[in-house]
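Reminder to self: C-alpha cells first, then the designed residues, so the page reads top to bottom the way the pipeline ran.
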C-alpha cells in the first residue's frame, strides 16, 4: 500500500474508464439475444416460425460481418489519431446504433441496425489494448487487461437483469433506447479524465514517479522526427508469424464466446423451458463466474513472473492451464440431465476460462509488437475473431433448425459443445508452433 501511494495510481483510473466502456460495449451487444422471444412473438423475424433460428443467425451474422469489416479500419485509425479521439468516436457511433434498433420493423431492419452497431463496436478492444500498453508496464498489463475485460462479464450480467424487465414494463423498443443512451454519459468522463501519460504529466495531473514506473520497461522510443507515430501497414504486419499466431488464436477461440453470448438464453429455453426473466439468474451466475476468471486470468501470469518465471513462459503456462478447463463442456448436457445447475456451472467455468485466456491473448500483442502497431494488430485479430463468429453463428443456425425439425434440438447443442470444448487447446498448440517465444519484433 505504501508503494502504491509513493508511485501513484492514476493508471488504475484509466483502467476503470476502459472497464466501463467495455461494460457498455457488451451491454449493447447482448440486448438482442435477450429480446429474441419478444421479437419472435411480435412477428419481427418473419412469418415462418420454422426458420426463426436461421433468421436470428443471419441477424447475428450481419453484426459480425460489420464488426470484422470495422476491424479493417479502426485499428489503423486509432494508431494514427490516438486513443482519446478514436475511442470517443467509436463509442458515440455504437451508442447511436444501439438506440437505432428500436426503430427496426423486421429482419432487414434489425440486420441493418446490427451492422451499424458492429462497425463502431469494433473500436473498443483495439483502443482498450492500446490504452493499456500506454498506461501500464508489461508486468501489470495482463492484470489491467483482465480487469477491463471483466467489463464484458458485467455487461452480460446487467443485461439479463434489466433488459427483460424494461421489455415487460415499457416495451422492447425502450430496452434498446435506454441501454444505448448509457454510452453517451461515458463520453463526458472520457473527455474530462483521459489523456496520454505525457500530457497528464505536463498538466501536473500525474506524478513523476508514476510516469517513470509506467515507462520502466519501455522498449521503444519516439524518434525526433516522430517516426514512431507512423502507421504500420497491414501488409507489413502480415509478414510476421507473431501476427498470424494472434490471428489464428482469435479465429479459433473468439467464436466460442460469441456462441455463449448469443445462444445461452436460447439454450436455457430449449433445454430447460426457461423464458423471459427466468433466464436472468442463470445467465447472471455464468457471467459473475467469468468476472472472476477474467481477473484471475490476468493475475496468474503476474504471479508466475513475481516468482521468477520469464514473461514468455509465464504467459504460455497460464494460457495452457486456461485451455484445459473448457473440456468440461463435453459433460454439460449429461450433467444437466441430472440438474440444470450442473450445466450452468460447467458453462460458467468454460466461459470463465475464455475470459482468462482472452486477458492473456490480448496481452501477447503488447508482448510482441511496439506500441505504434498494437491497435492495428489487435484489429487484425479482432477481425479474425469476428470471422470465426460468423462461421459459428451460421453453423449454429443451420444445426438448430435441422435438429429442431427432426424433433431433438439437443443434438445440435451437443455438437456445438464439442467445438467449444476443444477450441482452446487447438489454439494453444497452433500459437506455440508459430511463436515458441512471445519475443518483441522490431519494425523499421
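Designed residues (444 positions):
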Amino acid at each position: 500500500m505504501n508503494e502504491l501511494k509513493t508511485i501513484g495510481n492514476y493508471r488504475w483510473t484509466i483502467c476503470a474508464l476502459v472497464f466501463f466502456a467495455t461494460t457498455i460495449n457488451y451491454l449493447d451487444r447482448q440486448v438482442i439475444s435477450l429480446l429474441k422471444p419478444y421479437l419472435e412473438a411480435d412477428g419481427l423475424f418473419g412469418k415462418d416460425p420454422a426458420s426463426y433460428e436461421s433468421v436470428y443467425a443471419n441477424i447475428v451474422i450481419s453484426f459480425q460481418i460489420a464488426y470484422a469489416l470495422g476491424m479493417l479500419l479502426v485499428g489503423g485509425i486509432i494508431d494514427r489519431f490516438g486513443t482519446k479521439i478514436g475511442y470517443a468516436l467509436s463509442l458515440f457511433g455504437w451508442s447511436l446504433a444501439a438506440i437505432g434498433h428500436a426503430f427496426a420493423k423486421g429482419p432487414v431492419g434489425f440486420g441493418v441496425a446490427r451492422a451499424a452497431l458492429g462497425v463502431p463496436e469494433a473500436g473498443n478492444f483495439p483502443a482498450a489494448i492500446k490504452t493499456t500498453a500506454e498506461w501500464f508496464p508489461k508486468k501489470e498489463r495482463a492484470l489491467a487487461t483482465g480487469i477491463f475485460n471483466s467489463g464484458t462479464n458485467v455487461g452480460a450480467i446487467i443485461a439479463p437483469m434489466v433488459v427483460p424487465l424494461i421489455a415487460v414494463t415499457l416495451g422492447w423498443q425502450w430496452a434498446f433506447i435506454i441501454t444505448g443512451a448509457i454510452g453517451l454519459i461515458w463520453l463526458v468522463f472520457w473527455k474530462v479524465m483521459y489523456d496520454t501519460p505525457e500530457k497528464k504529466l505536463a498538466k501536473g495531473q500525474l506524478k513523476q514517479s508514476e510516469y517513470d514506473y509506467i515507462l520502466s520497461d519501455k522498449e521503444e522510443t519516439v524518434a525526433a522526427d516522430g517516426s514512431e507515430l507512423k502507421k504500420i501497414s497491414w501488409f507489413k504486419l502480415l509478414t510476421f508469424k507473431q501476427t498470424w499466431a494472434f490471428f489464428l488464436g482469435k479465429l479459433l477461440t473468439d467464436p466460442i464466446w460469441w456462441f455463449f453470448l448469443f445462444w445461452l438464453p436460447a439454450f436455457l429455453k430449449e433445454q430447460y423451458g426457461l423464458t423471459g426473466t427466468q433466464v436472468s439468474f442463470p445467465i447472471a451466475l455464468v457471467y459473475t463466474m467469468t468476472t472472476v476468471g477474467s481477473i484471475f486470468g490476468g493475475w496468474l501470469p503476474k504471479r508466475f513472473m513475481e516468482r521468477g518465471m520469464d514473461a514468455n513462459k509465464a504467459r504460455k503456462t497460464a494460457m495452457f492451464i486456461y485451455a484445459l478447463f473448457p473440456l468440461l463442456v463435453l459433460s454439460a448436457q449429461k450433467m444437466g440431465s441430472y440438474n440444470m445447475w450442473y450445466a450452468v456451472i460447467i458453462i460458467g467455468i468454460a466461459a470463465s476460462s475464455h475470459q482468462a485466456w482472452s486477458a492473456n491473448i490480448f496481452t501477447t500483442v503488447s508482448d510482441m509488437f511496439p506500441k505504434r502497431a498494437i491497435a492495428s494488430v489487435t484489429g487484425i485479430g479482432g477481425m479474425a475473431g469476428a470471422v470465426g463468429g460468423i462461421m459459428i453463428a451460421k453453423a449454429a443456425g443451420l444445426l438448430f433448425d435441422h435438429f429442431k425439425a427432426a424433433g431433438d434440438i439437443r443434438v445440435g447443442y451437443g455438437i456445438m459443445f464439442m467445438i467449444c470444448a476443444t477450441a482452446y487447446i487447438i489454439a494453444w498448440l497452433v500459437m506455440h508452433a508459430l511463436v515458441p517465444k512471445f519475443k518483441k519484433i522490431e519494425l523499421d
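Residues 18 and 44 are 35 Å apart (CA to CA).
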